[in-house]
Amino acid sequence: MSSTERIEPYVWKIVGVVIVGMIMSLLDTTIVNVALQDLSKDLHSTLAQIQWVATGYLLALAAVIPLTGWAARRYGAKRVYLVSVALFTLGSALCGFAETSTSLIVFRVLQGVGGGMIMPVAQMIMAEVAGPRRMGKVMSITVMPAMLAPILGPVVGGLILQNLHWSWIFFVNVPIGIVALGLGWRMLPESELGEAGRLDWLGLLLLVTSMPLVVFGLSEIATQESFTAPTVLWPIVGGLLLTVVFGWHALRTERPLLDVRLYANRIFTAASLTSFGLGAALFGAMILVPLYYQEVRHESLIATGLLVGPQGLGMLLVSPWTARLTQRFGGGRVAVVGVLLLCLSTLPLAFIGAETSILAISATLLVRGVGIGLSFLPTTTVAFASLRTDQLSDATPQMNVLQRVGGAIGTAVLAVVLQQASKGASGAADLASAFGTAYWWALGMSAASLIPVLVLLRAENQKGRGDDSPAEELAEAEVEPLGV
Predict the structure, then answer these.
(1) Structural domain harbouring 330
(2) Is residue 484 within 8 Å of 143, Cβ to Cβ?
(3) Are 446 and 336 in contact (CB under 8 A)?
(4) Are 331 and 469 within one domain?
(5) Between the CA of residue 469 and those of 136, 389, 462, 474, what are the distances in Å?
């Protein structure tokens, strides 16, 4: 290894420091999933209402990700990282003290504002200290704990809920956050990332109001039971109109919060739509698994946490091979295989019953995880490889935002479907049938991703694939590990 490629101990110390914050925020994407039943009962809320504990967090993540680059350039990556960890830790403590579903959702949004910036700022810090030539190696090593954190989330959550009050799934973040703050204050270097420029305040306002309105309208279907009810129709229409206004504004602004001009590139457009659909299929279906084991099979909280793990394990098993497969066969081909696996492995869950073999469910979730693992990184790699290097700083947040918004919409839709389908359920068989109905919708979300991923494959074949392009290397380095 040359002297320029050798990674000094100092770099690994910095990486270790930021990983503490990364793991804390990633654990929280899944640790709450096993607690939804307890939260619903304790806070006297329906599933459609309590799902906002997960949805609000995802929407907050999506809202602040585009701000990260500007904030890091304006205030310095170290300062933004410390503020993000502090907000996440404060939000975690307040969530633990929440006494109503409304206050819990508000505090989860605060938590998400902090958590949304931790990952991208941590990546900026690692990129700066490691340098572009060594970033790939650093990320290939740090991706393991980053992927293990969401897998362990349900297990840790189940262990806590089995022995303590649900508030401790939030309180557990507080000591980790304090350690992360102390280490970051002492060890992280100051950074100079260039001029920040003016913040697109109008774009920010449009962005943070449009998607929450759509998700709110979708979640209201559970109580209104009609798509034409005013509290359903008008928020959805209003949110979509604001999204259109944001697009119009972004096209006429020199430095918009999100550069929609990137969608003139059809490879990037197809990859973005695929990422949106995969986010909906992944995060939405993730609330169904723990609820099924708790409500239909009456498994313990610890067992539920463990039984949720196979999907994350599937992602973890395939992750070391994804980059090589992408380089050899092309991201489009690998992503098509991944989405097909995702669809095929979701289909058996649509026929789930009260007595379905737990081993069979676990095997299905494992294959589902493999499909997800084969879909996300190749899709992102193809998208980034189609862009100029100077466009990557805009492309990275946009892909991550679409994943999170897709996840929020998928979570809201499947929570509503499950609640509607389970009305009048008189036994385990009826309840299992309701979960089967929800999984049919999850299958529809997965199948919808096939359309853009096939467009992506065709566009990639027409363009031709370059080997070892700088964009492909940066794609591996910059893509945010997805909470599973």
Answers:
(1) 264-484
(2) no
(3) no
(4) yes
(5) 13, 10, 17, 9
Q: What value, to the nearest 5°, has the Cα angle with vertex 10 and ends 8 and 12? A: 80
What is the C-alpha end-to-end distance of the chain, expressed in Å?
35
Residues 367 and 350 in one domain: yes
Q: What is the pLDDT of residues 160-219, one digit of tens each?
A: 888 888 999 999 899 999 999 999 898 888 766 556 577 888 988 888 888 788 877 877
CA distances to 147, 249, 377, 379 from 482, rounded to whole Å, are 8, 29, 10, 13
- pLDDT band at residue 384, thresholds of 50, 70 and 90? confident
Q: How many CB atoms lie within 10 A of CB 256?
A: 21
- Among 43-52, 218-227, 431-440, top mean pLDDT goes to 431-440
CB 410 within 8 A of CB 282: yes
Reported as a single tens digit per residue, the pLDDT across 87-111 is: 999 999 999 999 898 999 999 999 9
- Does residue 481 or residue 249 have the better pLDDT? 249
CA 468/CA 50 separation, integer angstroms: 46
Q: In Å, how far are 149, 214, 283, 415 from 36, measured between CA atoms? A: 19, 22, 14, 11
Beta-strand runs (E) in 13-84:
none
| Side chain identity at residue 193, one-letter code | L
Same structural domain for residues 430 and 337? yes
Q: State whether 458 and 347 are in the same domain.
A: yes
- Residue 483 pLDDT: 45
The number of CA neighbours under 13 Å toward the Cβ of 404 is 29
**pTM score over 0.90:** no
Residue ending a domain, choose from 232, 256, 280: 256
CATH assignment of the domain containing 114? 1.20.1250.20
Q: Are residues 385 and 405 in the same domain?
A: yes
CA 194 to chain centre: 28
402 and 337 share a domain? yes
